[in-house]
Amino acid sequence: MYPYRLMFILTVFASICKGQQEKKCNVFPKDLYIEVGSDTKLECHTSCAHGKVFWKLNDTVIDESQLTTANSSVTVLSLKNFTAQRATLKCCSADGVILGGTIIKTYSKPSKVSCFLYNAIQNSIGVPDFLRCNWEHQRNPSKDTRYTILSSSSSDLSQSEICTSYNTSCTHEYGGRIVTKINFNSKNISFTVRAKSADFEAYSETQEVLRLYHMWKMIRPKIGVSTHSDHLLVNWNYTHFSSGVVKCQVRYNKVNTAKSPEQVKIKTLSPKEKGELTFGNLESCSTYIFTVRCAFEKAPWSDWSFEKRALTQLHMTKVKLQLWRKISDSLKNGSRKVQVMWTGIPSTCKDALTYSIKLTPLKQHTKRANTKTIPCGNSPCDVEVGKDAHRITLTVLRNDTSVEDSVYVPAVGESLPEVTDIQASTLEGVILVSWKAPVQPVSGYVIDYTHDGNQYHWKESKYTNITLTDLQDKTRYNITVTPLLNGTTGHSTRALPICSSVGAPANITITDVQGDDKRAVVSWDVRSEVDCRGAIVGYTVFYSTQNGPELNVSLDGSKQFVYLKDLTPDTQYHVYIKASALTGTTQSSEWLFTTRKFDPKLLTAFLVCGGLTMVLLLFLCVCCASRWKKISEKPIPNPGLSSVALWSSSGSQEGMLAIQPFSCPTESCCDRVYPEELEGTQVSVQPKDREGKPARLDAEERTVPDVVPEPNLPGKEPSESTEMMHLSSSEESTPMLHSESDQYSPYRSQSSVGVTAQKTNKQNKRVAVKQQEKTVTPTVYVTWDMFQTGKGQLKELDTK
To answer: Architecture of domain 507-598 in CATH?
Structure first.
């Protein structure tokens, strides 16, 4: 047992030592709740530390001037006018070790306590049935803070709890148990709010009420409004006592205008005085809203009464007519159409008014009987006048009261002044108009303007410039300036149409996209449904694939198409267009298109080339077929029918083949063979046998003499024959065909020998010499049947 006792003693001793060590270094007190703005002190025990200590407030070092030293082991921190809602304080040694800390929270007192009595049903009249108190508290209300209303009076000084709440207001029914605590006839009544939680308890300032009805909130008044010809009367009913005064407020404002702020008139009523108030300076034919609230002396205001609307009548004595006219071109019968318009009478007037227009010609010596009176409705009103000057008078009549105004219409061609150099410009939604005054003196100017030609507005000015406001946005206006003279008017001058403001560019619609494999043509149209659109200075075309980057092409505002290049074949693209102007931008809707796999022009080129190739091949086939048909149908040439003959070898040197011309009846332009001169060339053609070997011929047969004698013909002289032979040999000198490979003509070119010329012997000898100098071996044509059995020898021509 002894070891266990020793262990227990050591444990208790260690605990005591540890507690003493903790007490040596720490901050006291812990977790404070103090009132906002109050002073407090904190102690830091520094027995376990050496040297100076310092304090931190939310990790900010506190100035040493707020520190005092009680003794060598205690440092005191003084906090004055502490207002933070929550703060953390730490006491630290010189080397930065935290010796201790605490958290300080603040609370505030409830303030601005206001208690009043009221009726839950606003239509009931009598003793109020509810008591309500409101107050403010800086600390957010929570469930752990309980508020209690405490009340006392001069007759009962002890405080009574009226009601409790966990919010910053409390409502309790007046009567029952509370009626014994608060007497309605009591005086010097006071109310206090107590806020209490587990951490603090605070009391508000006391609200003192001299009389109980000073805290009585009246029921809302009942209001009535009556209209008269020149004023408007507001009356209301309210609850009052036999003693004391009642103050009331009447609030009113004009309907449908942002420039009419709410106005309030105050009326103080003595006991039993009737509540009413007269309004005589309101605008004619305008709708006003009225509402009233009242309160006893020093009591809270009642709720505002329900709103009451009233339309004022036309005050004829305050009407100021402003009459103007617009003169149109002359009609066919010489008369003119004049549009008469006026202001000064609101269109909202419900009064029964009568309008009449009187036309008075101003031509000299005009009788009174020429004056016309025309009934008219509301403004504007159209009338017709002649080419002479007229005075138009408008009369507005209601019951027995009337107002008038007149305007001058100049005669056609009348010499009157007019303004020049009229200019108009737009600036931030208003139109600035300026002009040059005429040479003649004028009293002022009338500036009329319209956006539709039907409804006109006009202003008067004594200067040569004016600013037109209250215009419709993005609307084109026509403006006219007319000088005024004493009782008359000059001629009107019109400015160029101008917009009140300019908006974004017109709407853009993509109309077509035509794409190939690597490019596309995008076309669009610009459509403006309204005027006053900004002038387009440039377009930007944006295009991209589904996952690719967005590309763009910029161009000026004169173009409405663009070529997109370097596209990817067989790919879907998104394209849209932005139009830019000085006043903004407009964007079209998105268009989707897909490029083609191949260039359609390449396919077209292939088709065209293929077609042309097929046509050419077909043409060549037809030509070849035609030529083959002619060649295949042509008979094999027979040398027996040729004009070439072979002389016998036993004949004289002058013996030779007789050459006679022949003709082919089926010869065509493709069959003709043209002669060819061969100089210094001897061509020898040997006939071949059936096996294709050259046939043997005698020397005389292979040699063609220079001069071929003509065989003896009946009726011919030998001399004549000799000359003919010389002539034939000289003239014919027949060349061979172009080559042996020529497949189109099997004959040698031949000339006719039927031409006979008379030559002298000298000429014949000269020809013979030439033939000796230039020897041409004629080509001999043979056929296979010439070498057949019995036909192997050529027939010899009898030279006799």
So the answer is: Sandwich (2.60)
